[in-house]
Amino acid sequence: MKLRFVSANLHGAGDYAAASALIAAPFILPIGTNNAIAHWLTIIMGVGLIAYSLLTDYAFGLKKLIPFHIHMMFDSAAFVVFAAAPLVFDFTGIDAQYYYGAALSVLLIVLVTDTKNTENVKA
Predict the structure, then answer these.
(1) Label partner for 5 (CA 20 to 30 A): which of 47, 88, 92, 121?
(2) Of 84, 53, 90, nearest to 70 (Cα)?
(3) Distances in Å between the alpha carbon of 32 and those of 46, 48, 79, 93?
(4) Angle at the Cα of 109 (from 22 to 112), degrees rounded to 5?
(5) pTM value?
(6) How far lies 72's CA from each of 25, 69, 104, in Å?
């Protein structure tokens, strides 16, 4: 089985779903009850994901200013932020679990997304 089986188009569709989940999470789950940073950081990350997705050169991008491989670098940076946040901001309990889960999710999607042959990706 091919490790990188998620196309740029499928990745793009998932970006907007993931961004929506990141923004909605603290309103559905008790994220940030003990630490306001946990509440707001996930919202900021979701808004950021929408912003760079809208600017990415793939089927779901509007402006197509950012090459897909750079988009993937932003996703990798998001993994680092999610993984480091519980340590840096002293998140505990559900806040830490949420951020470690988000980090793992981002890492997995980065690892399985096919970054080859993504020039001029069409819808």
Answers:
(1) 47
(2) 53
(3) 15, 19, 19, 10
(4) 170
(5) 0.91
(6) 23, 5, 15
Instruction: Identify the three-state secondary structure at position 44.
Output: helix
- pLDDT tens for 70-119 read 999 999 999 999 999 999 999 999 999 999 999 999 999 999 999 886 65
pLDDT at 118: 61
Cβ neighbours for 121, distance < 8 A, ≥ 6 positions apart? 8, 9, 57, 58, 59, 68
d(CA 107, CA 120): 25
Q: Pull the structure tokens for residue 123.
A: 């819808």
Per the document, the length of the chain is 123
pLDDT at 2 (0 to 100) = 74
Asked if residue 96 lies in contact with residue 86, where contact means CB atoms within 8 angstroms, the answer is: yes
Contact assessment for residue 38 and residue 90, using Cβ atoms and an 8 Å cutoff:
no
Q: How far apart are CA 39 and CA 99, in angstroms?
A: 11
